[in-house]
Amino acid sequence: MKTKLILSAICIVSLSSLFVACSDDDNDTTKPVIVINEPTDGGAIKTGSLLHLDMDLSDDVMVASYKVDIHNKFDGHTHTSASTRAVGDSITFTYNQSFDVNQKNHHVHDHIEIPILARQGKYHVVVYCTDTSGNESYVAKSVVFDANAEEDVD
């Protein structure tokens, strides 16, 4: 009788721990969705103006945060970290900023100042998004910094 009681208690404890371990966040393996409306891939950004960042972030459970990383791709890389160094009278521009969200859907409209002395050439604009379960996705756009580009008015 004692053995049956002990086995029953073990079964109940085991089943209870199984249900506790299966919370919604533990089962969330879906990565957040990032839709970048601006800048457009291959677009030109005038140095000394504002880069318009317009995007929508969403997740089936909750977006926790996002990060915007802008760095040069002068060496043709596909997402290694950039360094800041001077070339003549220009500077190699980098931007790296993180933001907390804690919403299921989040719209971002931001303006990032591109210095007039930013070195002209190809850059990556990469957005990383993480949900509350730690799932991460990213989207990258290639842009060109050009002193002769038309300034985008937004």
Automatic annotation (TrEMBL):
Domain of life: Bacteria
A Pfam family annotated for this UniProt entry: DUF4625
Signal peptide per UniProt: 1-23
Keyword terms of this UniProt record: Signal
Name of the featured protein: DUF4625 domain-containing protein
Organism: Bacteroides graminisolvens DSM 19988 = JCM 15093
